[in-house]
Specification:
157 residues; 5-stranded mixed beta sheet; 4 helices
C-alpha cells in the first residue's frame, strides 16, 4: 500500500516559494515566488531583493522616510524576479507566491501569460494597490486563490 502522508502539489510548490523567500534580506517582508508550467514543472523562482550589482549593504532597507532613503525605489519584487528567471514560455503557467501581488507586479504577471495565482498572505487586502491588482486580474481572466493552511514547515535553526 502506498504512503498517504505526502504533500499536495499546492503544498509542494508553495513550499518552494516559501523556501525562496528565505533568500530575501529584507528585514520586514520576505516574499518568495515559484512559477509552474502546465506540466507541473518549475520554470522560475524568485524572491524580493535589490537588482544585480546594487549592494544590499549600500542601499537602504528602511520603510519610512525620504523616498530615496527607503527600499521602495530599489527593490525588485519576487514575482518579476521569478518571471525574469523563467526558463521557458509562461503562457498558461501558475504563480505560487507568499504574498498577493501588488498592482505593479500584476501588470507583469498578466503580460507574461501566467493564468493563475496561488497565494498565502493577503496582508494588503483592500489597499488601493490591492484593489487595482485584483481589478486587472479579473479583467484579464486571471484566476487567483488563497491557501490558508499548508502542511509544509521550514524551520530555521
Amino acid at each position: 500500500m502506498k504512503s498517504t502522508d505526502y504533500i499536495s502539489w499546492d503544498e509542494y510548490f508553495m513550499g518552494v516559494a516559501l523556501l525562496s523567500s528565505y533568500r530575501s534580506k529584507d528585514p520586514n517582508t520576505k516574499v518568495g515566488a515559484c512559477i509552474v508550467n502546465r506540466n507541473k514543472r518549475i520554470v522560475g523562482i524568485g524572491y524580493n531583493g535589490f537588482p544585480f550589482g546594487c549592494s544590499d549593504d549600500v542601499y537602504p532597507w528602511e520603510r519610512e522616510g525620504n523616498f530615496l532613503d527607503t527600499k521602495y525605489p530599489y527593490v525588485v519584487h519576487a514575482e518579476p524576479n521569478a518571471i525574469l528567471n523563467a526558463t521557458s514560455n509562461l503562457d498558461g503557467a501558475t504563480l505560487y507566491v507568499t504574498l498577493f501581488p501588488c498592482h505593479e507586479c500584476m501588470k507583469l504577471i498578466i503580460q507574461s501569460g501566467i493564468k493563475e495565482i496561488v497565494y498565502l498572505s493577503d496582508k494588503y487586502k483592500n489597499t488601493p494597490s490591492d484593489v487595482a491588482s485584483k481589478k486587472m486580474a479579473e479583467s484579464a481572466g486571471l484566476r487567483y486563490r488563497q491557501i490558508k493552511n499548508i502542511n509544509v514547515r521550514i524551520e530555521n535553526e
